[in-house]
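Appendix B, Record 12. Input sequence as logged:
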Amino acid sequence: MKFPFEDESFAFETLRSAGFANYGGADLGEVLVTARAIPAGDEGAWHAVWKRAAERAERIGEEAASRGHAVSAREAWLRATNYYRTAELYLRDDPARDAEAEHLSARSREAFASAAGLMDRPVWPVAIPYERTTLPGYFFSVDDSGEPRPTIVFNGGFDSTLEEAYFAIGAAALRRGYNVLAFDGPGQGAALREQGLHFRHDWEEVVRPVIDVALTIPEVAPDRIALVGYSLGSYLAARAAAFEHRIAALILHGGVFDYHQVSLRAVPPWLADWIMAGRDDVALPVTELLMSQSTSLRWALRNGRWAFGATSVLDYARRTRQYTLEGVIDRIEAPTLVLDAENDQFFRGEARRVATELSCPHDLVTLPEAEDAGEHAHAGSLARFHQMAFDWLDETMRPLRAKQGDFELRERDRDGLLVLNP
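Logged structural output:
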């Protein structure tokens, strides 16, 4: 889906940002005007133009807040959050030491915190104990009743941020009566930028303390916790679910069986062989040439080098070897929904392979390009993703609620009356 660039990476990232409009993270007109001012393939212009859009939205929020217009301020700050994240995306030459990248990331987090303080539903930051430090998180509650409710634990992906979780799933979950606990794990968001924590393949060591914290929150129904993995997070969540059995359901928004194979798929097989053989003297010049010709490859390898704590882009590729579900996928017990996208440009074929290897009860749903849902992670079609995911989750959680003797909304009859069944 070329929106509105021919460059695949620019098109996807613009669609990703625009797709958050459903939940207040963008305005379509702002996105189109911003994109129109960016020359094709110009990463410097991408940074500058998106930054201007973010600053404008932030100023609108500040002005609205100063005059007591809470809803207008919240909406503007939510857009600023997304636009700052988008502006920072391609600053990957040396992101750990890039003051501008740090500035934009901080502004994105600050804008979201300001918006969160004005939300209609309770939301509060959470510090999740992890090894000798903590991971940042947010808990989004359906209401302030204190009633235990089904809860989503949301696991982001390769370049996700904690704040992005609100648009990716949080707002949709709250509308349907689900709480959400979102977090930045190692390699993601503030955990990477502020603490220097890098990705690890044994992700159960990350999710375990997150579930521990979830079970201390009175609003969380302990037997109705669903783990949702987004993009690369679908590998991470699946790996965690193989060892963490306190979850009632698992949703893989993408499905990744072998991330190592995926990461090498972007280069010719002979080059992949050189990389894995450690022939960096010949592999690096060729890889750098390919990177100069492809925005997608250049960004992915640079982001991977940083997020995985690698010494080079080739070292990053080698570090992905352990990121496979081989030998552990049969340990997943929770009912699982695997969502595929027909035109997934990053993980093509991986979701189907995951579904084939699963031994637990599972469903595979492929959303097609013809329904505007064929892009990676269904970018630009989040409403369709949410409809599929939450309808499945409602039906999966229903027997658990029935066991407790709860009454729940089952359906509407032809006259629109509510039909309640025990």
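Residues 43-66 form the longest helix (24 residues).
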